[in-house]
Amino acid sequence: VAAALNPAVPSVVSVFAGRIADTGVDPMPLMRACGALLADQPKAELLWASTREVLNILQAQECGCAIITVPHDILAKAAKMFGQDLTELSLDTVKMFARDAIDCGFKL
User: Fold this and answer.
1) What average pLDDT does range 94-108 have in this prediction?
2) How many domains does the chain have?
3) Is the dihedral angle over the CA atoms 89, 94, 98, 104 positive or is it negative?
4) Residue 63 belongs to domain spanning
C-alpha cells in the first residue's frame, strides 16, 4: 500500500489491529512494520482500528499511530482506569468479590 501512495497527498492507512489480536496474533510487530513502511510518506497517517481494550491505546501510541478508533465504552474505561494505583485496584476488586459472595448467601 505504501508504494501506491502519493507523498504529496494526505492519506490514512487503516490496519484492523484489534481483529488481528482476535486471532491470537500480537498486532504490535505488524503495526511497527507498517509505521516503518510509511516513514517515507510524510502525509500518510497510520490508523489503529478495532480497539478492544484500554491497553491498545498505549500500544497504538507506542507504534506511532496518528489515529486510533476507540469505542465509547473503552474510552470511558480508560478515563476511569488510567493511572489508578494497582494496589488500590486489587483491594477494591477483592472487596467487590467479597460483597458479591455475601449477596449470594455465602458465608466468608
Assistant:
1) 93
2) 1
3) positive
4) 2-70
